[in-house]
Amino acid sequence: MKNFRYIWSIPVLMALLFFGCEDILDKQPPGKLSESSFWQTENDALAGIAAVYDALETPRAQMGWGHMGFFDSFTPIANCRGGSLKAFSAGTYDASTSVARHLWENSYKGVVRANDFLANVDRIDMDADLKTRLTGEARFLRAMYYYLLVEHFGDVPLFETVPTVDDALAERAPRAKVIELMKQDIQFAIDNLESSYSGDDLGRATIGSATALRVKLALLEKDWGTAADAAEQIMGMGYDLLPNYQDVFSVDQENSVEVIFDIQHIFMSDAEPGGRVEKLYAPRGATASGWSTIQPNLYLVEKFEVIDPNPTYVQEDARIPTEIYDYFEGRDPRMDYTIIRPGAHFIEQSGDKLHPYEMTNRNNTQTGFWARKYVIEGPIGVTLPNNSPLNWIIFRYSDILLNYLEAVAERDGIGAVTQTVLDQTINKVRARASDQLPLYTAGAITMEDIRDERIRELALEGWLYSDMKRWQTLETEIYHPKTGVGLKITNETIELGTSPVYPRVFESPKNYLMPIPQDERDVNPNLTQNTGYPE
């Protein structure tokens, strides 16, 4: 279980000094170690592909696939507690922001490792079928890393081999050219990967993983036909929803029938730390000793429908007024599986606590809410700071179902969406969440309904920033009356806030792309800047 990414050898660790730690546009040619003493055996190939997977996990608090949940803080649903993430969502950043720099560096780290593998694996005398499959994994992962680059930066330098000194002055390639390579990589992966794995190979890229990336790339291009076709293919691959929503994010249900691709984490391993997302999401009193970096707000809460207008509850703390209980109780249960709100319980390392007054360092959240999704409750031993056993899911089945519905609605028109499609997608997702949620009927659903369902289902998972840019709703929703607004909590009482914690800014067309990092432009004067950012 989970071991394939972490089978290291001394040559691989030394090779990563060449291919992972230096500035991508200031690379030196591969050293003699790689040429003379590595890429000799099948085990070298397995270790080499492990390094490509390992780049999915980003350093602590940095942007990349491993912390893709951060992207949701740039949308109306969540706030950042501070630092460069807050500056980004508040519009007070520039080309020197660490958000863009880390995303660029971590993505190119993965590209270079993939290219290094592809450049050398053919030198190894090994099983031909295994070699082809590993090549498919490397090409899938290269396309994954390029996805983040083209979505968030547009035109970027394109490397199909390990960069040399001459590449330090590479110009930005047209976005379309990078995407063309990505499509070739995805098709090769689909043609050569396995449909599933078991044992120590669990977590490797599959045909479903590559097809899910095809869905996301087609949505980025607004190629609705390709997105719908690819999603429909996944719907025939045997994936399904788990019966209970909360189980999707449970250690006991990892690698479930709902998971298409995730980042595998090893808990309490000397070879590799576990996941770091929990540290960034969790309350301070949680076993993960969280930083509360991402904080949900009232905008997100109000997306969860009231399904029981007269709920029954016990007012456990008189400082939580009945109007606050009435506001939160009786909503779509995904709310309580996603956030921690007043009147809810959370098991800290010291025991069961009632939010907010029993919670440790309750003022660490500026909105009055904490994330519950991806946070493990319980005593010390179930998880540790920066060492969570919980895998981070990148592609899951409910996401693809809703992508399929959106693509069909955009391709054919919302009025042409059939009841069959609704029942296969949004109604299936809602029925899993609660049998009290009303289902949609053909002719009575809107694009806003589809979009709101994605927010309810996928909040804090990182895809909503891409979604909202595609929908072009950030231009208006970022100024919504509830955006960035939380609770006003004093020692005596709680009330709904009326002012945002900090101003939110999304400037069109500027903010559809991030600035090219200034550090990269200092090294390479041939890198032009994106529109709207100072040259």
UniProtKB/TrEMBL annotation:
It is found in: Cell outer membrane. Its main location: membrane. Residues 273-533 form the RagB/SusD domain. Residues 516-535 are annotated as: Disordered. Residues 525-535 have a biased composition (Polar residues). Keywords: Cell outer membrane, Membrane, Signal. The keyword Signal applies. It comes from the Bacteria. This is RagB/SusD family nutrient uptake outer membrane protein. It comes from Splendidivirga corallicola.
